[in-house]
Amino acid sequence: MDAITSFAADSYARARTAAAPAPAAGGVNFGKLAENFADALRGHEETARAAMTGGADPHALVEALSSSQLAVETVATVRDRVVEAYQEILRMPV
């Protein structure tokens, strides 16, 4: 029974590590995430400017607007979660 359990656990561990992305060495790099967010918004602004001057089609403008809306909502959600976690930490008894 132990050999089967051990084999199953080893197989599961190998499958999980093969399917899971490699974890970052230092955890989440918020600086890189903020840089990617700013770059994405810059690209969306360029598309909006091009659409206003006639250099881009309206479909590209709609895609840029919806993508930037999703990015801003995601950042706002993450910010809210971080603030909630910070407030929970402050409520902990010392």
From TrEMBL:
<dbReference type="GO" id="GO:0005198">
    <property type="term" value="F:structural molecule activity"/>
</dbReference>
<keyword id="KW-0282">Flagellum</keyword>
<keyword id="KW-0975">Bacterial flagellum</keyword>
<dbReference type="GO" id="GO:0003774">
    <property type="term" value="F:cytoskeletal motor activity"/>
</dbReference>
<keyword id="KW-0966">Cell projection</keyword>
<dbReference type="GO" id="GO:0009288">
    <property type="term" value="C:bacterial-type flagellum"/>
</dbReference>
<dbReference type="GO" id="GO:0071973">
    <property type="term" value="P:bacterial-type flagellum-dependent cell motility"/>
</dbReference>
<keyword id="KW-0969">Cilium</keyword>
<protein>
    <submittedName>
        <fullName>Flagellar hook-basal body protein FliE</fullName>
    </submittedName>
</protein>
<dbReference type="InterPro" id="IPR001624">
    <property type="entry name" value="FliE"/>
</dbReference>
<dbReference type="Pfam" id="PF02049">
    <property type="entry name" value="FliE"/>
</dbReference>
